[in-house]
Amino acid sequence: MDVNSLDLKKLRKDLDDYFTSAYFMVSKFALMDMVDVQTASNEKLIEIAKKNKFDLNKYKLKEEKKLISKSNNSKKDDWFNNPLI
Questions:
Q1: CB–CB of 56/10 below 8 Å?
Q2: What is the Cα–Cα distance from 8 to 6, expressed in whole angstroms?
Q3: Report field, pTM of the whole predicted structure over 0.85
Q4: How far is the C-alpha of 79 from the C-alpha of 56, rounded, in Å?
Q5: pLDDT in tens, 6-62
Q6: The pLDDT value given to residue 21
Q7: Which of 27, 28, 33, 56 might form a disulfide with 19, Cβ 3.0–4.6 angstroms?
Q8: Residue pair 18/52 in contact by the 8 Å Cβ criterion
């Protein structure tokens, strides 16, 4: 999977939340995984996500988002694309 086609910021946050929960609920050893997630390179982050069975399709960037981020022409959000609605 191409590193540039994923929202790595969201993936890193979700993995961090996942291991934080594991730390408090299951095992204190999850602290090491939390540190790994926070310091991992983009490629290593994807490996950690795959190892923990994260669905990387949820983190794929939409083509429109890539174009907007490259051009930086528009800063407004399109509420029609809001995943929470």
A1: no
A2: 6
A3: no
A4: 23
A5: 999 999 999 988 888 887 877 777 778 888 888 999 999 999 899 989 999 999 998
A6: 83
A7: 33
A8: yes
